[in-house]
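for the recovery benchmark. tokens below, seq after
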């Protein structure tokens, strides 16, 4: 599709990856594998934390909602990109672009908030174990998760409203594999995007506050861990908490850099790389980092799989 054609239509062209057919197929294949792995991992977590009665504590309740966010986040951007590459058609309608911006920014914001809540849950569990059931009672957990989803929706609404209130007077070509706000701002021909920058700055402050809260929580956790006499116990908690802190920091820093760095008319490979770091990798890696390395989760998964095998054998005998 040419630029002259797109100027007569209301949508955009997503030009994130190469226009060479071989590289388009490679991109679609890699994204498809990543998407299937991420979906499978998150679906497994949602299933076993719902079905297993042993996994009904606040930690697993938050993990289930993290997986719901990750599963949804992957589905917002990756399938559209795969379809565009396979069909050799980079067009996305104006309405689809609005929906992508809304759902992606909502889910990304909610993910920052849920990870902050999860860090506090781990802090209470490790540093204040005797008060855990009082502080993290089911009603408070339910209200915390409700606040996470509502805050994400409000963030997404602010981003979407301010982004699509600007006038797009340049060629509607987005040098990205999805409708990303920083790339949309490049299409503005005036200072209309100042409202978006205001929203971005406000949410960046909120994200920084979340980062400080997470850092303080894990700082207290590590301080408590160092007082554990057992070297094996210290190693176990460190191996669990350090990946959590790394993934959260990685997700937050790459996203903040992409949304706050000055926009440029010339696209760079760094822009594309940063977008993959905060859109595709975290939802794919979170199931492994947060859940599937957990012994209780592994045991629950084995129980579910053995139960399915028993059902399958029973059906075979009946036949």
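predicted aa per position
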């Amino acid at each position: 599709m040419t630029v002259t054609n797109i100027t007569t239509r209301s949508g955009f062209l997503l030009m994130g990856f190469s226009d060479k057919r071989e590289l388009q197929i490679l991109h679609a294949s890699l994204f498809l594998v990543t998407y299937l792995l991420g979906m499978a991992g998150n679906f497994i977590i949602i299933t076993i934390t719902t079905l297993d009665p042993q996994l009904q504590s606040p930690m697993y309740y938050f993990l289930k909602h993290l997986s719901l966010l990750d599963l949804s986040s992957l589905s917002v951007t990756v399938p559209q990109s795969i379809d565009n590459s396979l069909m050799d058609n980079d067009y996305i309608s104006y309405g689809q672009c609005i929906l992508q911006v809304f759902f992606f920014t909502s889910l990304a914001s909610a993910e920052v908030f849920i990870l902050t809540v999860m860090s506090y849950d781990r802090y209470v569990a490790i540093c204040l174990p005797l008060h855990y059931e009082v502080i993290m009672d089911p009603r408070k957990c339910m209200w915390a998760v409700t606040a996470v989803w509502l805050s994400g929706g409000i963030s997404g609404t602010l981003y979407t409203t301010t982004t699509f209130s600007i006038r797009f007077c340049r060629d509607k070509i987005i040098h990205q594999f999805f409708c990303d706000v920083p790339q949309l701002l490049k299409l503005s021909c005036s200072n209309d995007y100042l409202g978006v920058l205001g929203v971005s700055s406000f949410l960046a402050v909120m994200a920084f506050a979340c980062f400080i809260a997470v850092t303080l929580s894990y700082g207290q956790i590590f301080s408590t861990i160092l007082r554990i006499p057992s070297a094996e116990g210290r190693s176990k908690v460190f191996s669990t908490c350090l990946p959590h802190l790394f993934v959260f920091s990685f997700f937050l820093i790459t996203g903040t850099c992409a949304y706050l760095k000055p926009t440029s008319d010339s696209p760079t490979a760094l822009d594309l790389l940063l977008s993959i770091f905060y859109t595709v990798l975290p939802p794919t890696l979170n199931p492994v980092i947060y859940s599937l390395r957990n012994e209780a989760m592994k045991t629950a998964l084995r129980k579910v799989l053995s139960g399915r095998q028993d059902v399958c054998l029973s059906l075979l005998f009946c036949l």
